[in-house]
Amino acid sequence: MQPQKLDHSDFGPFFDADSELLILGSFPSVKSREAKFFYGHPQNRFWRVIAAVFDVPAPQTLEEKKAFLSAHHIALYDVIEACTIVGSSDSSIRDVRAADIRPILAGSRVSRVFCNGGTAYALYEKHIYPVSGAAAVKLPSTSPANAAWSLDRLTSAWREAIL
What residues in the chain have per-residue pLDDT under 70? Predict the structure, then answer.
């Protein structure tokens, strides 16, 4: 697979004026880019984890996912606006152009920022924190590549951080 220069133009951040927490991934996977929404790969555990945190069934459709996020005052975006990447591999990310989260912060009630995984957190600390001034909490990645973390262990860690 060849590296591709990609950007986040297929879909932007998801938030509204009532969003209270912001969860940032690194960059959309191939499946998420195809679905034009966050965490579109069926093996990514994000939707199962976040639904379990709030003790509700995991949303399945795009409409259900958006309704879930709105109901729980969650904003979603990624740390990277554009980059060169091979497939969905975080380790291949190069030529990063960081996202500007200031419009999300200004247009919502977001007071807490979380990063889904180490890559998102490291890039946040390097590129976004110096501009936004909003501290972030690193959460364990819901990616299937993070096989060392079971669904129960992920849910417990996310619940402790978010609630």
Answer: none
Q: State the DSSP code for 27.
A: S
Domain carrying residue 41? 4-162
Please state, in angstroms and rounded to a whole number, the distance separating the CA atoms of residues 158 and 152.
Answer: 10
The domain that contains 77 carries what CATH number? 3.40.470.10
DSSP state letters, 56-124: SPPP-SHHHHHHHHHHTTEEEEESEEEEEESTT-GGG-EEEEE---HHHHHTS---EEEEESHHHHHHI
Could you tell me the two tokens for 136? 């972030």
CB 51 within 8 A of CB 72: no
Q: Find out whether 54 and 72 touch, Cβ atoms under 8 Å.
A: yes
Chain length of the chain:
163
| C-alpha gyration radius of the chain | 15
Residue 10: per-residue pLDDT? 86
Q: What residues pair up with 55 in beta bridges, in sequence order?
A: none
Number of domains in the chain: 1
Q: What's the pLDDT at 58? A: 98
